[in-house]
Task: structure prediction
Amino acid sequence: MMDKRTLKNRIAEIAPDIIGLRRAIHRRPELSGREFGTARVVREALNAWGVPAQYHLDKTAVSAKIVSGKGPAVVLRADMDALPIHEENNVPFASVNTGVMHACGHDMHTAILLGAARILHESKGFWKGTVLCLFQPSEEEEPGGAFGLIKAGVFPSKAAAVFGLHVSADHKCGHIGIKSGSDYAGALNFDITVTGHGGHGATPEKTVDPITCAASIITQLQTLISREKPSTDPAVLTIGHVRAGNRRNIIPDTAVLQGTLRTYSDELQTMLARRIKELSESTAKAFGASARVVIDKSYPSGYNAPELADKFRERMKSFLGDGCVIERTAPTMYAEDFARYQQIVPGLYVYLGVVPQNKKRIEAIHSPRFLPDEGAIETGIAAHVVFALDTLGAGDL
Result:
């Protein structure tokens, strides 16, 4: 059995190397489906440590299978893609790819899993079974890299458990947040194209203005949340993109709205999707326009197996200390394609605190100034290793 002190010391020893890998990945971020360079960095690091690794999904994904005799299988997953955001941090390892940034912390996730793979490979004498490390592309873009890895048969259908984490600006560095049961929302994406009849801005009476109609649709859609959704069942509806026209004095023919709907309930999601279509079409008709609504189910809602959450909570309290493990009582409205894995095998997805101890807060994820504390990398590595060893029955740390 590997003891707690040995594991902590080894994590501290490799931390500088892992931070270096994180910075290299952060410096050259890649958008969803284009993670060729990141995947190459991952595979080369694993091979240098003697961990067998192979490419998938046109060399945008990497898997590493670590086998130590007969026993259960556990999957550890990290996502690798970045966002179309221009970085505003003044650090030596800031993004050199204009307009692309690891603003969601996937560079941290990838480096952390690399560190965990290295330690699990080195410690094969202490456990029996199989650890599959998945370095996944395209979490930020539907249908998500999880869908591709499942479809390609890379994700095993008979694993004992799957584990992952996400950096969180809710918690301090050195802390882990855990939410048992429902967590992370199921998401629907929808596009509404309003078609009217364009003309000159000076004579709106001769037109059917799609912009005015679209504005009314936006307002009306919010009543679905305030007046048609049960008060006990959370949901969020956001219109995040509006596109219409090209000059101030021209009324265009069309206006396009793009939005997202988040719920934890499939039944509520189905009802609200139907009502989005009905309300958009009826509002457009009242303006003398028409509305075409396209709805695409994005990611399912996540569910953390309570038995995994309970065991992991106690193990991490023992490893980090009681005050470093936070019980989250409310689920988040963020969406994650990790939920696709949780539909196949029991899973646990936790929150890794990245706020420096000397700060009250940092910029949130998806901000051009998001800058997590790299000290959290050691906590993240420990979380992966502790979960894997516990699932494989290697004993308490």
Summary: The CA atoms of residues 22 and 111 lie 5 Å apart. The chain has a mean pLDDT of 96.
